[in-house]
């Protein structure tokens, strides 16, 4: 999503607005954000940060990688996943979004808000069926060229239905599939509620919420997000 001015100029506009109107700065920032089409300033800033971060993440991913994008709610992990797919499309790669959280119109709406130009979002394939799991993902990507990118939304509910294989088995199958075909699979992931930002600035691999046992060593890279900061690291 393109802003009417660079973010530092928008901040300056908010400061001047706060002084002129005797407003708290956070209210002025939120007012500027609404003028730009965002509900609040934190959403505007996290969206812009995700756009820059996604380019860095994509440049550091190798064919065959399994990526975790993890954070507490509202920290920008879904934004990062969507931006990653848009960057993949810009680079001429096939991009797929498998989501158990959104309907297709909702997913398309979020993509169009982020895409510049907006019709770039239409090149991302969106799959929303409740049947999403390892078998369906592999079937959809059976003919995908090496370097294709998929984002799965999200890790912890892939085996929510009892008819699906255990999460550990699904991730093992997807890891082997990605390596064999040279594909990049990203998984949006929850962080355990026990994560304490007072104890450490960012969560890490030990903070991934795992209601069911999974070998996290199958993931090759992870990006952790919290409070506007992010860190991409190798898992192994």
Describe, in plain words, how this protein is organized in 3D.
Helices cover 39% and strands 16% of the residues. Helix 2 crosses helix 3, helix 3 packs across helix 4 and helix 6 runs parallel beside helix 7. The chain folds into two domains: 1-39, no CATH class; 53-234, P-loop containing nucleotide triphosphate hydrolases (Rossmann fold). A seven-stranded mixed β-sheet has the order 3-2-4-5-1-6-7. It is built from seven helices and seven strands. 40% of the residues are buried. The two termini are 35 Å apart. Helix 5 links the parallel strand 2 (95-99) and strand 3 (125-127). The protein has 236 residues and is α/β, with parallel strands linked by helices.
Which segments are poorly predicted (pLDDT under 50) over 5 or more consecutive residues?
Answer: none
The DSSP helix count reads 7
Sheet having the most strands: 7 strands, mixed
Count of beta strands: 7
Structural category? alpha/beta
The first-to-last residue Cα distance is 35 Å
What share of the residues does DSSP label as strand, in percent?
Answer: 15-25%
Whole-angstrom Rg = 19 Å
